[in-house]
Amino acid sequence: MFARTGVASMRRVLAAKPAFTSWRSLFIQTLETPNENALKFLPSTKILGDGQTKEFLSGREAACSPLAVKLFTVDGVRSVMYGPDFITVEKKSGDWNILKPEIFAILTEYLNNGTPIISEDVDLHELEINDDDDDVVAMIKELIFTRIRPAIQDDGGDIEFVEFKEDTGTVYLRLKGACRSCDSSSVTLKNGIESMLKHYIEEVESVEPIEEEVEEEEPEPQFEAAQLNPVARGPPAL
């Protein structure tokens, strides 16, 4: 995560050496993120269009993407986010040394078969300046798009503009992907994003996060054999 203003200071140089896995003509690079529970996978192919992202916080949400559904079958996966050229996988438990081979196998098999990654009718997150945005909102969005979002995506995350409250000068944002659950997200918001927006836009007084809870998958109901097979229980007692 970045903690100081300015594009150069916001971009973090990853110290760890990237790992590569190949399958036929597909190469997948993995990069660590500031969030130890999230890894960024960079296949040698496009995932979404430029500027587009899509995050799934549960297997139910991922119904529009067979690849994401498959990734959620890996025990320990908490969320999946697609970017233009990367996929961020967040874990809730488990060791990456155990999880990575299974994730690699799913990605390589799926991305090599040419099947669409996501349904065409699904809304994707794109940061756009609308005709009805006032000057302040337009400036906020432009700064996010040109100066902040690239650094966030470098770290395997994304940022979504929610709203600007003119009466309080508060900007509400939603962090996604690796940045959503990162321990340093509060530092990112206050020392990085808030400082930059306040520096360039005098109407901005503060930046606050909109948190989105991860939906915990309910386990499938378990039934005893006697419940599933009434004959096994024998006749009712008289």
TrEMBL record:
GO cellular component: mitochondrion
Alphabetical list of SMART domains matching this protein: Nfu_N
Similarity comment: family membership: Belongs to the NifU family.
Residue segments, region Disordered: 209-238
Scaffold protein Nfu/NifU N-terminal domain location: 28-114
One of the GO biological process terms: iron-sulfur cluster assembly
Organism of this sequence: Diutina rugosa (Yeast)
GO MF term (any one): iron-sulfur cluster binding
Protein name stated in the entry: Scaffold protein Nfu/NifU N-terminal domain-containing protein
Record's compositionally biased regions (Acidic residues): 209-221
